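Much of our argument rests on the idea that a fold can be written as discrete symbols. In the encoding step, the backbone of a single protein was reduced to a row of integers, each denoting a local shape. This step matters because it turns folding into a mapping between discrete strings. For completeness, the protein is quoted in full, as a sequence line and a line of structure tokens:
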Amino acid sequence: MNFLKTLVAAGLVAASTVPVRALDISGAGATFPYPIYAKWADAYKKETGNGMNYQSIGSGGGIKQIQSKTVTFGASDMPLKPADLTKSGLVQFPTVVGGDVPVVNLDGVKSGELKLDGATLAKIFLGDIKSWDDEAIAKLNPAAKLPKQAIVVVHRSDGSGTTFIWTDYLSKVSADWKSKVGANTSVEWPAGIGAKGNEGVANNVANTKGAIGYVEYAYAKQNKMTSVSMINKDGKAVEPSATAFQAAAANADWEKADHYYVILTDQPGAASWPIAGATFILIHTQPQDPAAATEALKFFAWAYRKGSKMAEELDYVPMPDKVVTAIQKMWTAEIKDGSGKPLFDASN
């Protein structure tokens, strides 16, 4: 887990080497984008001297903290519905697109060699399929030597946007999953063991023979985990990659979506990764600390302008330029101080 330790260090350096002052940025939430937020924070501090302290606590915690106004911004991979945003006095905007990836710990199996479809994946996580040599898995992998080994399901124990993307996908491909479990940041898991954060799931899978879990792709790739290929809505087997996440996002009409409420799971297209999702920032329309909120908007404006290459290096998909332009116009129109003046105009 050296990569994650490096990112933690980067995030902490960005947060801790600058004296605490009004312009420091505090955020909390999703672990899904933590690798890129930590990388951005480190680069931003080196360029501007300004710190960004981001707590990777899960989307559920991020939503609660921004609603209770204990952080400058919250982060969630589950977009809030427009009515909930209005009720809490918030706006949201997407930063990058990524993907949830099934990862396994099976001797002799390499990344991409094992294929699953949505229905079979749902049965595994429902606890209906209990062994790796089950007929349903064997049918999808006729050439594979599947072990007669118990499946150990690993899932998130904390409120998680990664879980929302995962369970939203399973709800779309399995009527049983939709009726028995549903989609949310936290669900009543019918099988398996829980772990905190993408980091916790990655650790548990890596240390448990026969395990299957789900993590954001950067965690799988950088830790050399064994990822599973998925059979998508078009019936094509695809491996996770930035290209496959981008294909899934190609149908999204961000500018017309009310409050950027877009969910990218189970999208059509031969090249689409079926468990893709965007990650979102939540911020108050009238922040109680206007100076800190302004600094946060400056940080994300910088990230849109200068952070795309860093995002791509971690296999996230940056937002298209026209979407960034629309987001920044929304900032000017919606996020204001007590006198009604826009906090930040990115066009200046």
Q: What stands out?
A: The two ends are 42 Å apart (CA to CA). The longest strand covers residues 90-104.
